[in-house]
Amino acid sequence: MAIVSPFRGDRNKRTHDKYSWLPPSKRSPAVVIRPFRPRTGASGRQKQQPFDRPVADSLLDGSFLNTVAEVRLAPISVERRRLTTCRSAYLSIADRVPVPLENQRISDMSLFNVGFVIFPELTQLDFTGPLQVLARLPQSATYIVAKSEAPVPSDCGLTVLPTHTFATCPPLDLICIPGGSSGVVGAMCDRDTIQFVRRQAGTAKYVTSVCTGAFVLGVAGLLKGRRATTHWAFTELLPLVGATHEKARVVKDGNVITAGGVTSGIDFGLRVVAEIAGETVAQAIQLGIEYDPDPPFGSGHPDRASDSVKAAVFPRYEKARTAFRDGITRSSTR
Questions:
Q1: Quick check: 246 and 229 in contact, CB under 8 A?
Q2: Under a CB-based contact definition with an 8 Å cutoff, are residues 315 and 245 in contact?
Q3: Same structural domain for residues 37 and 91?
Q4: For residue 7, what are the contacts with CB-CB under 8 A and spacing of at least 6?
Q5: Which of 86, 169, 176, 211 is catalytic?
Q6: How far is CA 66 from the centre of its chain?
Q7: Which of 76, 101, 126 represents a domain boundary (last residue)?
Q8: Is the pLDDT of residue 100 over 70?
Q9: Of 200, 215, 263, 322, which has the maximum CB count within 10 A?
Q10: Total count of domains within the chain
Q11: pLDDT digits over 59-89, tens only?
């Protein structure tokens, strides 16, 4: 998208009188994207101060971070839009309105809120895989939500710092629950976690999970009568939370989307982006992260793994399945 600015003179003098001599064909809006440079005012608080040099970078490769985007309108006078902060992304957006409405307030274009619920001993790739994709969704804000502000350890030694707690998280448009083993059992049995998931799911456009995170949705009562999937080693347990297993890498039933084990979270993320923003945007993100799987072995699913590999792996999940059954039973008695 080519981004140009037809404006002349002082950027703050955008009045009807100044541009009233322009013919209608010259009054089209333009988007100017400028890199962000904080400036400290007399109060000590930072103010958003853009550079003077316009920058026309793609929004699809993540280069929109640390930028200020403004939609300028001429000849209609427009108040400076409120800057919405999403981590290091600052966007100021206004919509062009018909001339009869030029004196009315122009509403802000809201961001699409994406939230990941994290908990101790989660499987980090269940979380970071779709995070890497959905964080690039245009006009979105990402929230990493936990029960408290304390760092959250994953099951591989990586620790994650939440951005919000259950108490401070705003309403989410998409809520995603990653999976894990002992971590999911703990989350299923934690009343605060289940109540938060249930409350957010009540207003979310998309209720989603990756891997065994499906059982957190299930315990919250969100999979009853739904088709769903999870990690292959736990699919037999889905009926315990009212779901019917569908053999697929990503399953969508209404506004509920569940993904299979671990790496399928990336596929899930791309599917969601395609539905929200279109396939072109999703394909651009896929190219940007160079998601072009070519595994060295064909043993990524029991249907393709050799008997010897299955014999080595299957016993490892017996204890985990027992823990999941017990966790589901305990949560149902609360």
A1: yes
A2: no
A3: yes
A4: 14, 30, 32, 72, 74
A5: 211
A6: 18
A7: 101
A8: no
A9: 215
A10: 2
A11: 444 444 433 333 233 333 333 333 333 333 3
